[in-house]
């Protein structure tokens, strides 16, 4: 891969682990490496802009890593949104783009309200169904703030991210109740049985509806595939997943005073934090991840199974052998 692309993807994965989002961090690196080796992900894509109207465009990512495609999409939205006030990019022919907050953060830093969506592989049964029709279909919403960090909601529309199922399987742990069903539709906490069955949407029929609309937002206006049309690289690393993403950015400076908007968002954050009983702090959306990141500024905490996989991967690729560490952490220098 080009150095700049490799650095971008590496940074996004390390930041996810620093924020405690282990399902989207270095857990994914062996999968990315295998998909790059097998052809499911293109290391040197020739991305192509289509249907560019000046503030809305479609980007054919040529099977790039999702982070590479999304950075181009976010850069477009920032540039064109500064001129027109609002901009959007639909991405097609892409792959997993990491944690959604990585993208909304960039837009928030420039004073944009943002919506980011994506399709994924087929792992979720619609409410009342049994077949894997939907993906985990992440939704990220971001708002700029004059506080320490933006107001951010970054969530899968399934009860848990699929990467958390993989992490539970690797760690030999059970899933929380209510996350999945087995192949016969019975509730299960066994990640292996859940992989054969399906994950379920959060919030019953309401979450299922949101997940379905994210499929439409992310894939209906481009050539991207829906989840049920997709072969996931988790199952077949040579698969060109053709994920679809959508990023929309509204430049607050175009419709209001940016500083006023940011101050208003900060007021909302502080009101949420101060709403607990007996002075107990309540987290505003995005707070737990940012607090984790500050605490982990000089190291990358990793589950032991992920650390072991990185040791194996390094050895397979011919790097100097890395001895397994005895603690729960790997230093950022070593990573």
From TrEMBL:
Task: List, alphabetically, the InterPro entries matched.
Answer: Mal/L-sulf/L-lact_DH-like_ah, Mal/L-sulf/L-lact_DH-like_NADP, Mal/L-sulfo/L-lacto_DH-like_sf, Malate/L-lactate_DH-like
Molecular function (GO) terms for this protein are: oxidoreductase activity
| Entries under PANTHER family matching the protein | MALATE DEHYDROGENASE, OXIDOREDUCTASE-RELATED
Q: Which organism is it from?
A: Corynebacterium deserti GIMN1.010
Give the protein family.
Belongs to the LDH2/MDH2 oxidoreductase family.
Keywords on this record?
Answer: Oxidoreductase, Plasmid
What name appears for this protein in its UniProt entry? Malate/lactate dehydrogenase
């Amino acid at each position: 891969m080009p150095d700049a692309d490799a650095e971008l993807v590496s940074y996004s994965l390390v930041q996810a682990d620093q924020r405690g989002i282990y399902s989207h961090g270095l857990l994914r690196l062996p999968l990315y490496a295998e998909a790059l080796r097998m052809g499911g992900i293109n290391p040197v894509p020739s991305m192509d802009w289509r249907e560019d109207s000046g503030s809305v465009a479609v980007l054919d990512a040529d099977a790039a890593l999702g982070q590479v495609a999304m950075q181009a999409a976010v850069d477009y939205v920032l540039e064109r949104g500064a001129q027109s006030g609002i901009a959007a990019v639909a991405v097609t022919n892409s792959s997993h783009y990491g944690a959604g907050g990585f993208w909304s953060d960039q837009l928030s830093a420039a004073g944009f309200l943002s919506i980011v969506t994506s399709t994924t592989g087929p792992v979720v049964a619609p409410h009342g169904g049994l077949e894997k029709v939907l993906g985990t279909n992440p939704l990220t919403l971001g708002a700029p703030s004059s506080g320490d960090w933006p107001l951010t909601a970054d969530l899968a529309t399934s009860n848990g991210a699929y990467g958390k199922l993989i992490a539970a399987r690797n760690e030999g742990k059970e899933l929380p109740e209510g996350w999945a069903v087995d192949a016969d539709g019975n509730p299960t906490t066994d990640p292996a049985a859940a992989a054969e069955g399906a994950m379920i949407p959060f919030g019953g029929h309401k979450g299922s509806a949101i997940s379905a609309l994210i499929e439409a937002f992310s894939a209906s206006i481009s050539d991207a595939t829906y989840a049920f049309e997709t072969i996931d690289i988790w199952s077949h690393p040579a698969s060109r997943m053709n994920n679809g993403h959508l990023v929309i950015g509204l430049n607050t400076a175009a419709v209001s005073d940016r500083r006023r908007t940011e101050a208003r968002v900060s007021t909302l954050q502080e009101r949420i934090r101060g709403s607990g009983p007996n002075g107990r702090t309540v987290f505003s959306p995005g707070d737990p991840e940012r607090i984790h990141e500050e605490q982990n500024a000089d190291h990358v905490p990793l589950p032991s199974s992920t650390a072991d996989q990185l040791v194996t991967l390094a050895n397979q690729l011919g790097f100097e052998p890395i001895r397994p560490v005895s603690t729960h952490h790997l230093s950022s220098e070593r990573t």
